[in-house]
């Protein structure tokens, strides 16, 4: 496992960040958001890189998780140990309901139908007048953890996000290496062959879709806590595009690419938006260039450098 | 809920439907011929509206704006094809989705920079400023009827072009089997550029026509884009006929759903929740229709490829 | 004759006005190789699709191992023990040769809804996969990515995947397609070895190979089976000779 140093380095840097003189609250806030997006991107990577399912509606899963926090907050249920499982279950149920139709299709149709379901979720969120409709909903406060207000502590929240992200990456790896993951990966490369040995890909894809939905729901729950505010814009299709960009920017070669992509995306977005209000003017062309020229993604960069060095 | 209201909403739906068709036609042709997903097609619609509105105020006439905006959107389509899209034809759909997403981010922001964030207004031509009496006591804006007529006329022309000309035959053949067309010795790159520029101009045309009845603002192409995708997926990707049928269907469902559902729901529930639920269900009705159609016919109503 | 392993009765398939499969009936006895031959355009590919379950016939039945499977899709027939190989090599290029075969073993041994334990560490899967590779002489290439194998090796892997399913019938769709003379010789040797242990339905273009391998032959012409018999009788059949007029391979 010679390539393991890159993800290890990234996680080590994230773990050291609060002590590296970067303890300014603002940077930690950004890092927390980056790790949460990393969690969501990891779940999307499982679909795109693992199962070959390009979803353009993944922000809806995140949104369902975030709105679960809202609904419970509105009902004065604020214990994270209750909220998190509910958020994950809600997103997974949404994934199963929409995935049951979506996994029947493939290719462009899958992209479009996930986009359509994402839009349905978006309009539903915008119509929830009780939760602020278009304007969104401000939480009374962050969730409590085991009855204590730990999530309000920046350090605790930082390490919570980091721990969950690491768990998701490790869990995702195990999943892809398992029997289940093997069928999933094989069906991505050659569904006809997989059928010919006796597997129907659809149920495997549906389960993967549900798992990814659940993990994205958890990310949504964390995001709601990080911002203490939830709005329909969380579910906009452009956010799904952002998530796909993170996955591709990081690279489809390995699962931790999603983490790299999310970190790079969020930090770039923050940096550029500090510099100019019209940061998308730079960000858009960067995205185009990344797609055209960075084919292996960021995770593939060390390998490319190594090859160049070896070639001399 | 009167017959008059139904008539007005039906006309609104059809008029929205033909606008959607003009956007979707380019999208479905580009996808059919080049197997290329272009998310940035919606910004052509937005550019059409912006260029139409500012050129109209520059020339002092709606017609001046329209006539100048058409070649301008054609040119912008060709420039984008040359700069970005042609490098993506042999890439997977995922890369195409992302790169064209980047183009959207850029152009939405560029429009903000050039024209500001405040919505622009464009006056309809004086000739069509008034209303037409449909029923005794029921007026309908002449301009909206003109959009409907112009849209249907364009659809007819497009049909003739695709079904009755040599270029159209190539486009149809390309939608079924692009490799075959290339093997026939046709310069496929030229054909691609032609289809691309033409599609961009159709979307721009829709944008100019919509400018007087909608507010012209950044991001206005995004919503239309998503609905245009719904249209081509329902219609069957690559099928112009399918896009036409689906566009009218989507236009009607959008318009009638949003306006009639609150009234219908009031029959079974109280007024305030009926209004809320009606609006919510109304705005997702088209997506539900799409999911339903795809569940039964995964390749759309008029599938092109066997 | 023993109970046939595969029995096709009155199979029909039309595309537009063209009857591509026209009242096809034949039975495959267990053990040995039953070949289906026919000139180009005879409908061999369409027939294979209907036998393996990727195409529904318009009429007629396919019975496999005493069971009507006409309505079952490819994956259900595979689970019943019908293993097919593809005319155009169909392997999983990103997997190693071993993992390609192990996937097929996995399909018949226990649930694949297992999410935790690494599949590559399951000794039982690997052992059975290795045995299948060994049968086709590919054991030495077990660790190589399938995408990096030579064309002939891919054809061998295609066979190994089918064997790893422990099939009751091997449905081989032109296993020699695209193979060079040396590769063809090696593949024929492998098939000769396999016919002692498996029931095989072989659809093949290469006449020499068919007459060297087959125990029985069905001849398909314009969607119809015009003869089913032992190779020597087929060779002498005037109707078959007429169908192949101008093609000197039968001689």
The dominant shape of chain C is: globular
- Strand order across the largest sheet of chain B: 1-2
Low-pLDDT runs of chain C: none
SSE topology string of chain C: EEEHEEHEHHHEHEHEEHH
What features would you describe in this structure?
The complex is a heterotrimer of chains A (312), B (306) and C (251). Chain A is an all-alpha fold and 312 residues long. Chain A has 13 helices and two strands. Chain A has helices at residues 5-16, 25-51, 58-74, 80-102, 107-126, 154-177, 179-189, 191-196, 201-227, 237-250, 257-275, 280-293, 301-311, and strands at residues 137-138, 229-230. In chain A, helix 2 runs antiparallel to helix 9. Chain A is globular, with a radius of gyration of 19 Å. Chain A starts with a helix and ends with a helix. The mean pLDDT of chain A is 91. Chain B has eleven helices and two strands. Chain B is globular, with a radius of gyration of 20 Å. Chain B has a two-stranded antiparallel ribbon. Chain B has helices spanning 3-34, 41-59, 62-83, 93-115, 142-164, 166-176, 178-183, 188-210, 220-235, 240-266, 271-296, and strands spanning 131-135, 138-141. Chain B has a domain at 11-217. By secondary structure, chain B is an all-alpha fold. Chain C has 251 residues and is an alpha/beta fold. Helices cover 35% and strands 24% of the residues of chain C. Chain C has nine helices and ten strands. A six-stranded mixed β-sheet of chain C has the order 6-7-8-3-9-10, with helices on both faces. Chain C has a four-stranded antiparallel β-sheet with strand order 2-1-4-5, covered by helices on one side. In chain C, helix 3 (97-108) crosses helix 4, helix 3 (97-108) packs parallel to helix 5 (151-164) and helix 4 (123-135) crosses helix 5 (151-164). The mean pLDDT of chain C is 90. Classes of the chains: A mainly alpha (312), B mainly alpha (306), C alpha/beta (251). Chains in contact: A-B, A-C. Chain A binds chain C through residues 174-175, 177-183, 185-186, 189-190, 192-200, 204, 207, and chain C through 52, 73-76, 78-79, 83-84, 86, 90-95, 99, 102-104, 106-108, 111-120, 122, 161, 164-165. Chain B: It comes from Paeniroseomonas aquatica. Chain B: Keywords: Amino-acid transport, Cell membrane, Membrane, Transmembrane, Transmembrane helix, Transport. Chain B: This is Branched-chain amino acid ABC transporter permease. Chain B: InterPro entries: ABC_transp_permease, BCAA_transport_permease. Chain B: Belongs to the binding-protein-dependent transport system permease family. LivHM subfamily. Chain C: This is ABC transporter ATP-binding protein.
């Amino acid at each position: 496992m010679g390539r393991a140093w890159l993800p290890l380095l990234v996680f080590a840097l994230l773990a050291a960040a609060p002590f590296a003189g970067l303890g300014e609250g603002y940077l930690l806030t950004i890092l927390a958001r980056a790790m949460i997006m990393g969690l969501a991107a990891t779940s999307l990577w499982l679909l795109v890189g693992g199962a070959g399912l390009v979803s353009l509606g993944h922000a809806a899963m995140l949104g369902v998780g975030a709105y679960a926090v809202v609904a419970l907050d509105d009902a004065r249920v604020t214990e994270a140990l209750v909220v998190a499982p509910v958020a994950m279950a809600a997103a997974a149920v949404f994934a199963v309901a929409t995935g049951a139709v979506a996994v029947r299709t493939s290719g462009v149709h899958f992209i479009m139908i996930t986009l359509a379901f994402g839009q349905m979720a978006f309009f539903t969120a915008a119509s929830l007048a009780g939760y602020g409709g278009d304007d969104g909903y401000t939480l009374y406060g962050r969730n409590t953890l085991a009855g204590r207000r730990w999530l309000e502590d920046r350090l605790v929240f930082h390490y919570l996000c980091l721990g969950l992200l690491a768990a998701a990456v490790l869990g995702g790896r195990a999943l892809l290496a398992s029997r289940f993951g093997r069928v999933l990966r094989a069906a991505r490369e050659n569904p006809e062959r997989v059928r010919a040995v006796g597997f129907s890909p659809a149920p495997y894809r549906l389960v993967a879709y549900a798992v990814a939905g659940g993990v994205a729901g958890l990310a949504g729950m964390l995001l709601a806590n990080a911002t203490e505010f939830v709005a329909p814009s969380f579910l906009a299709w452009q956010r799904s595009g952002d998530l796909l960009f993170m996955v591709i920017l990081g690279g489809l070669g390995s699962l931790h690419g999603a983490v790299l992509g999310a970190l790079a995306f969020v930090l770039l977005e923050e940096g550029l938006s500090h510099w100019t209000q019209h940061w998308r003017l730079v960000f858009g062309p960067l995205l185009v260039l990344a797609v055209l020229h960075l084919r292996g993604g960021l995770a593939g960069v060390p390998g490319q450098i190594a090859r160049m060095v070896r070639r001399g | 809920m009167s017959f008059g209201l139904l008539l007005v909403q039906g006309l609104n739906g059809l008029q929205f439907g033909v606008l959607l068709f003009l956007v979707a036609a380019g999208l479905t042709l580009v996808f059919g011929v080049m197997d290329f997903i272009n998310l940035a097609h919606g910004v052509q619609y937005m550019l059409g509206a912006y260029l139409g509105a500012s050129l109209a105020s520059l020339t002092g006439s709606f017609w001046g704006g329209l006539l100048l905006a058409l070649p301008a959107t054609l040119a912008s389509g060709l420039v984008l094809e040359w700069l970005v899209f042609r490098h993506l034809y042999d890439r997977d759909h995922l890369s195409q989705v992302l790169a064209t997403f980047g183009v959207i981010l850029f152009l939405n922001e560029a429009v903000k920079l050039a024209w500001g964030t405040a919505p622009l207004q464009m006056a309809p031509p004086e000739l069509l400023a008034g209303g037409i009496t449909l029923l005794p006591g029921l007026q309908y804006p002449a301009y909206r009827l003109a959009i409907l007529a112009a849209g249907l006329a364009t659809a007819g022309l497009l049909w003739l072009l695709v079904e009755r000309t040599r270029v159209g035959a190539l486009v149809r053949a390309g939608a079924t089997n692009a490799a075959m067309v290339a093997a026939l010795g046709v310069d496929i790159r030229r054909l691609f550029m032609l289809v691309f520029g033409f599609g961009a101009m159709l979307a721009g045309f829709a944008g100019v026509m919509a400018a007087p009845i909608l507010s012209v603002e950044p991001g206005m192409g995004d919503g239309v884009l998503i609905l245009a995708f719904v249209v081509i997926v329902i219609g069957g990707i690559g099928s112009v006929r399918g896009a036409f049928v689906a566009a009218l269907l989507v236009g009607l469902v959008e318009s009638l759903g949003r306006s009639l559902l609150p009234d219908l729901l009031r029959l079974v529930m109280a007024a305030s929740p009926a209004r809320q639920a009606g609006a919510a269900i109304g705005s997702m009705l088209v997506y539900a229709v799409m999911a339903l159609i795809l569940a039964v016919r995964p390749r759309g109503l008029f599938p092109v490829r066997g | 004759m023993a109970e046939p392993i595969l029995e096709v009765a009155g199979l029909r398939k039309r595309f537009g006005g063209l009857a591509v499969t026209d009242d096809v009936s034949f039975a495959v006895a267990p053990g040995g190789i039953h070949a289906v031959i026919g000139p180009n355009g005879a409908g061999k590919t369409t027939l294979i699709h209907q036998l393996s379950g990727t195409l529904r016939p318009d009429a007629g039945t396919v019975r496999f191992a005493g069971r009507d499977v006409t309505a079952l899709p490819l994956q259900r027939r595979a689970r019943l023990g019908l293993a097919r190989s593809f005319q155009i090599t169909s392997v999983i290029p990103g997997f190693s040769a071993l993992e390609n075969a192990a996937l097929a073993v996995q399909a018949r041994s226990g649930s694949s809804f297992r999410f935790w334990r690494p599949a590559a560490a399951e000794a039982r899967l690997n052992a059975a996969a290795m045995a299948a590779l060994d049968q086709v002489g590919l054991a030495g290439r077990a660790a190589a990515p399938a995408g990096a194998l030579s064309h002939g090796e891919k054809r061998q892997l295609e066979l190994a995947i089918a064997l790893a399913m422990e099939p009751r019938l091997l449905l081989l769709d032109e296993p020699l397609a695209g193979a060079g003379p040396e590769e063809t010789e090696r593949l024929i040797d492998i098939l000769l070895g396999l016919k002692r242990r498996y029931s095989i339905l072989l659809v093949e273009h290469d006449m020499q190979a068919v007459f060297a391998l087959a125990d029985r032959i069905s001849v398909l012409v314009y969607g119809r089976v015009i003869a089913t018999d032992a190779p020597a009788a087929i060779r002498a059949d005037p109707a078959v000779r007429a169908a192949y007029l101008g093609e000197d391979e039968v001689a």
